[in-house]
Automatic annotation (TrEMBL):
Pfam families: ABC2_membrane_3. The chain crosses the membrane at residues 20-38, 50-75, 96-119, 131-150, 162-180, 215-234. It comes from Companilactobacillus mishanensis. It is found in: Membrane. This is ABC transporter permease. The lineage of its organism: Bacteria, Bacillati, Bacillota, Bacilli, Lactobacillales. InterPro entries: ABC2_TM (IPR013525). The keyword DNA damage does not apply.
Length: 241
């Protein structure tokens, strides 16, 4: 498959503009940072640990931000027909995917790094390799999930309605895990559950050893979402009708 840098760059610029000019999307990374700051400043004596704050902040950023950055711009572009010219100029699925992923994943990674000092966690306590690997892969999964939702949505409103159950279920994984052991076991097979477990173990034990189950869960989610996206894109494209 031949990739056109010109087409990838065109999609990259369009996606970057869509993300940074749409406050409905930018509210997600801002909410992740704001949540951590509010919990620290407003309720300093409630026993919230750095692991708890970082875990929730990362989930807000990775899940809420990723799904919204994937689905909202795509559904908006379909409504306004801003991608019609690119689609009719033979942009293939891989060019669209690369150009769309880059600005979103860069923003997700930057915010995940910023969340560490904001959570009052020493930089030396973070296993940066695994941290960036798990959180970035989680962001990619959320973005792919968002793209699939965007492809099947006719409008931003419909995209929001379809996204909400996924966002609530995955963002509040720690709440479900604390509520019930059976739910905790089920949620351990979600990529948000893996991220939550990773951050907790990393900060409580001081070191993180890669768990085969967690790696399999993350890779499986990524492959499944990628395959579903490729199928949806090849089957429907952006379906302007």
């Amino acid at each position: 498959m031949n990739l056109s840098i010109r087409k990838i760059n065109a999609i990259f610029k369009l996606k970057t503009q869509s993300i940074f000019t749409n406050m409905s999307i930018m509210v997600a990374p801002l909410m992740a940072i704001g949540y951590v700051l509010i919990m620290k400043l407003v309720m300093p004596d409630t026993g919230f640990t750095g692991a708890y704050l970082l875990g929730f902040g990362v989930l807000f950023n990775v899940i809420l931000g990723g799904i919204m950055m994937g689905s909202y711009p795509l559904s908006e572009e379909k409504e306004k027909n801003t991608l019609r010219v690119l689609m009719t100029s033979s942009v293939n699925g891989m060019e669209f995917l690369i150009g769309s992923l880059l600005p979103s994943i860069i923003l997700i990674v930057v915010v995940n790094i910023i969340l560490v000092p904001i959570s009052s966690i020493s930089i030396s306590k973070i296993s940066w390799g695994p941290y960036l690997l798990f959180t970035t892969l989680g962001g990619l999964i959320s973005l792919l999930l968002g793209y699939v939702i965007g492809i099947y949505s006719k409008s931003q409103m419909q995209s929001s309605n379809i996204s909400m159950p996924f966002i609530v279920l995955l963002t509040f994984t720690p709440v479900f895990q604390a509520a019930n052991k059976s739910l905790a076991h089920i949620m351990s097979y979600t990529y948000s559950g893996v991220i939550t477990e990773f951050i907790s173990k990393m900060l409580t034990s001081g070191i993180y050893n890669f768990d085969v189950k967690n790696i399999v869960v993350m890779v499986s989610w990524f492959i499944i979402c990628l395959v579903v996206f490729v199928y949806a894109y090849s089957k429907h494209g952006l379906d302007y009708e």
